[in-house]
Protein: NADP-dependent oxidoreductase
Amino acid sequence: MKRFAIKDYGPASDVLIEIEAEPRLMDDTHVRVELTAFAINPYDVALRQGAMRDFRTLKFPYVLGNDGAGIVTEVGSKITHVKVGDEVIVHAVGGTYGEEVVVPGKKIVRKPVSMSWEVAAGAVTPWLTAYNLVTHLLGDTIGGTVMVQGASGAVGSLLVQFLKKQGKTVLASASKRNETLVRQLGADQFVAYDEEDAGKIFADQADSVIDATKGGRAGEAGMEIMKAGGNFVALNDLPSEQKKPGNYLSFGPSKDYSDFDALTALTELADTIHLTIAEVLPFTLASVIAGHEKLEGHPAAGKIIIKKER
Structure:
C-alpha cells in the first residue's frame, strides 16, 4: 500500500517520501476506506516543519493527513451507518496521505452523490472549524451581525455561507482579488483589506468577529469592528492588547465536538455549499511536495487536493 510520509522535520522536498506500508488491522468499531482524494492543509505543513513538536510527538516515518474521501472496503461488526461500497467522507487523526486509511466509525459519513470527490476531501477540516465555532463555541451568544475576516479562505468562505444559512448579517473582508468570490458566497458587505481600512468602515457594527486569517494586523481591525461586550474569535493568535471590552476566544479542536454530527450537517448542505478548489494534483510524491510548497507561500484562494484516477 502506497503512502506519503515525512521521515523527519524539515523542507518538503527533503523530508517527504513515498513508502510501502502493510494494511492496518481492523476492529469492530472501525472502517477501512480506499481513498480517492485527500486534502493538504496548513496544519500538515506546520507538522512537517516541526512547529508542533513541543506538544505533539511524531514517530517517523509519519503519514500526514486528516481529510479524505473514498470507498468503504471493510466495515467493523458494530458499524451500521455505512457498508462496503459506500462513498464516504473521512476525518482521520492522521494518515490520509495514502491509498487507504482505517478510521473509527464515528469519524466517517456517507458522501452525497451530488458532492464531488474534491469538495468531499477538501471541506472536512475547514467545515469542522466553521461548524463547531458557530454551533458550539459561540452558540446563542453569536448575535445577528457577524464579521468574517479572511472570508475568501477555506474556513472563512464556509463561515460566510453557514452564517447566511442561519439568517445572519455577514460583514466580510479579504483581498481585492477575491471580492467577487466573497460577494457570491453571500456576504452582505465587503471591504478589501488591501485597499481600505475595514476597522474604520465597519467600526462597532459586529456582535461577533471571527478572525479566520493567518494572523497579523487583522486583530486590530477586528477589535474596532466588534461592538463593546461582543465576541472576538481567533483561529490563530488573539490580539496581544485587548483594547475593547468583550469575550476574546481562541478556537481549537475539542473532544466535546462530534465529527459525525458536523459532517452530517455538511452532507445536508451538499447541494448549496461552495468550496473553492485551487488545484487538483495527481496521486504522486511530487504532487504532495508541490502542494506543501504552494501552501507555504501566498497561494490563491482555494484548497489543494490530491486525487487518484479511478
Summary: The longest strand covers residues 30-40.
